Amino acid sequence: MDLKGRRALITGAGQGIGEACAYVFAERGAQLVLLDKNKKTLPRVVERIKEKGGNVIGEIIDLTHTTRLEQLIQEIKADYPIDILVNNAGFDRPGITTKIEKNDFNAVIGIHVTIPFLLIKWLLPDMRARKWGRIINISSIYGISGAKGEVAYCTAKAGVIGLTKTVAREAGSDGVTVNAVVPGLIRTPPMIKMPDKYKAPIIAQTLLGRMGEPEEVARVVAFLASDDASYITGSTITVSGGWAI
User: Fold this and answer.
1) In this model, does residue 1 exceed pLDDT 80?
2) How far is the C-alpha of 218 from the C-alpha of 91, rounded, in Å?
3) Cβ(21)–Cβ(13) under 8 Å?
């Protein structure tokens, strides 16, 4: 699963699954563009990769500032054509359907669906022109199963799957694969902070009996980004330890 010579852009790369993807991609030889709004965590990730000899650029940016984001993407494309896009950035604003505020709902949809859509819109034409590209979108088990009190997040993550399947149909004839990775309970900072009373029932329903590690998701993402996954597109790959199968 060599990624040497490939250029990858990863959003939300300052922690969790995005950070793990950055390390795994770097180990496999990819050149990296990492985006995150966290001024503390992203520089640490970039420095760690550079210390190990990796080729990496880190950009601090709020992805919801779409005018600046488009400008940045155009600048990157001019000097650093992107072969692989990993749409990972996200956040959650819990709330039940009858109580959540419209702005909170729209914010979650925006970061999980609108931003990936825009990045695909801006980067896909060049992938098509080169007849090679990989787009990997990070969804969630909740995008398949739903969850009480998570109407925005579940709707957004279901939207990620719909976006994935649609773009896969549009881009396949040009050699671009588009897949979604569907994590379960993964040991990311938000999940570490989750009270045990909420985590315990999920772990009890997980066939492997534990939380997953970000690296376990990242290795699946790296596989989908590689030539080894050349005949996989439009798929949702579940990485959940057997939760909600």
Assistant:
1) no
2) 18
3) yes
The conformational region for residue 37 under phi > 0 = left, psi -120 to 50 = alpha, else beta, is alpha
Examine the pLDDT at 193 and tell me if it is beyond 90.
Answer: no
CA–CA separation, 19 and 215 (whole Å): 9
Within 10 Å of residue 126's Cβ, how many Cβ atoms? Answer: 13
* Phi, psi (rounded to 5 degrees) for 17: -65, -40
C-alpha to C-alpha distance for 228 and 29, rounded to whole angstroms = 15
Quote the CA–CA distance of 119 and 137 in Å, as a whole number: 11
Nearby residues of 2 by Cβ (< 8 Å), 6 or more positions away:
28, 29, 226, 227
At residue 196 the predicted structure's pLDDT band, cuts being 50, 70 and 90, is confident
Which two three-digit tokens encode residue 55? 């080729």
Give just the sign of the alpha carbon dihedral 199, 201, 203, 205. negative
Task: Write out the catalytic residue numbers.
Answer: 153
The alpha carbon dihedral of 64, 100, 17, 225 has a sign of: negative
Between 66-79 and 115-130, two packed helices, what is the crossing angle to 10 degrees? 20
Tell me the Cα Rg of the chain.
Answer: 17
Distance of alpha carbon 144 from alpha carbon 182, whole angstroms: 9
Closest CA to 89 of 67, 115, 54: 115
In eight-state DSSP terms, residue 37 is: S
Total-model pTM: 0.97
